[in-house]
Amino acid sequence: QSLYDEAIRLSPMNAETHFLRAKTLTYLQGGPSLVDQELTTGLNINKRVAKEGGLDTLNLKILGNDFAGMGHLSLLDPLLKLKKLGVMTHSHLMVVTETAVANLAYLNCWKKHLPILVTNAKNYSAIRSLLSPIYEDISMLEAKSGYLPLYEAWNLALNSWGDAQPLLQLSLEQKEAGDRVLKKMGLDAESWFVGLHVREGGKGGYLRSGADADLHDYLPAIRSIIKKGGWVIRMGKGGTPIDEMDHLWDYANSIHQSDWMDVYFWASCRFLIGTSSGPLSVPPTFGKPVLYTNACSLGHSPNFRNSLMIPKLFWSGKKNAFLNFREILDGQYGWTVRPEYDEGQTKLVPNSPAEIVAATEEMLDTLDRPERYAHKTSNQEAFDKLRVPFSKTSQIRIADSFAELHRDLMN
């Protein structure tokens, strides 16, 4: 922290120092209120610089490479919904480099809603240098009423939009092309499938490894889906191969992998089983639900429609017991993606295969009986009561099967 303090003293009008310190607080310390303070300070600096340079008269925000990652591209959904709902009044222009874009086919889906410029690194650097004070920050969006932290803005957009039509849908040509590929793999017109994406690690380093999960823990859930008549399509890019199984396609390791096929799967799955990784938030932009497993940042959970979540738990060596949900949310544990805390005394505990199976079967049953989702169970109500102080950021519904199993952690 002393290095940040010195950097701010030497260059008090450099907003980037505050943004960097906010990221450090997010990943290392789990201090959401301090994160918001740092982001607000940085954004106010940028607003002042923009006004002094006359950039405020453009009434424009630039979306740069920060919005080009896989999950970050899906943030165009809440941003554009807030614009359509009148919560935001400024216009947006997206300027990115092609090498930064995780999926060009998915980016292209947004072109009818947003002007997008894909350029080279030299041009991007020049534009960024000229217009940096009016770049939208991915962690805190600017609304008509002031700044909104990302997850607060996300939930506001999703709750306000409700069950209205999603912003994205496949074109007829995209659907027909994807259907042809599925037919080659043995899926007929009556087949349904569940997408699966498990973040196995190797990206983001140790500090983000709390978001990782073990693919093998999902094999019983895969078998459960297949037993009920569905297919499972394992998504991603490479990763641990899965042994051949009827009605399972390890698409992540197949020759058919492509950006446009990824989009087809996200838009066509019955739902996606995902982890704390970018692809989790893509199906909801097409109106598809998700089962969020091994959720490691309990305080950060968008209220995806008709979706469920099961979080990782925390084992405390000092208590020789699991932390309860209130302790997770009240402390640093619910706000970062680190694998351990308190000098290794508190560690993340992944979901068990049995917990994943139970949540998967609950998800399938909920989709078969939509009326079930219309009312929360007593377990879900009790869990939500714990989240009241964090209701702007933590809203996705917990699976009843998981809440019942861990009722003791709601005391």
For the biggest sheet, the summary is: 6 strands, parallel
Order of helices and strands: HHHEHHEHEHEEHHEHEEHEEEEEHEEHHH
Number of helical stretches of at least 4 residues: 15
Radius of gyration: 22 Å
Uncertain runs are none
Sequence-ordered SSE layout with sheet pairings:
Elements: H1 2-10, H2 15-29, H3 32-52, E1 60-63, H4 70-73, H5 76-84, E2 91-97, H6 104-109, E3 116-119, H7 121-131, E4 140-143, E5 146-149, H8 150-161, H9 172-184, E6 193-196, H10 219-227, E7 231-234, E8 248-249, H11 259-268, E9 272-274, E10 290-295, E11 308-311, E12 313-316, E13 321-322, H12 325-330, E14 340-341, E15 346-349, H13 353-368, H14 378-386, H15 400-405
Parallel strand pairs: 1-2, 2-3, 6-7, 6-9, 7-8, 9-10, 10-11
Antiparallel strand pairs: 4-5, 12-13, 12-15, 14-15
How would you describe what is shown here?
This protein is an alpha/beta fold and 411 residues long. It has helices at 2-10, 15-29, 32-52, 70-73, 76-84, 104-109, 121-131, 150-161, 172-184, 219-227, 259-268, 325-330, 353-368, 378-386, 400-405, and strands spanning 60-63, 91-97, 116-119, 140-143, 146-149, 193-196, 231-234, 248-249, 272-274, 290-295, 308-311, 313-316, 321-322, 340-341, 346-349. The protein has a six-stranded parallel sheet, with helices on both faces. Strand 14 and strand 15 (346-349) form a beta hairpin. Helix 2 runs antiparallel to helix 3 (32-52), helix 5 crosses helix 8 (150-161) and helix 10 (219-227) packs parallel to helix 13 (353-368). The protein starts with a helix and ends in a 6-residue tail after the last helix. The relative contact order is 0.11.
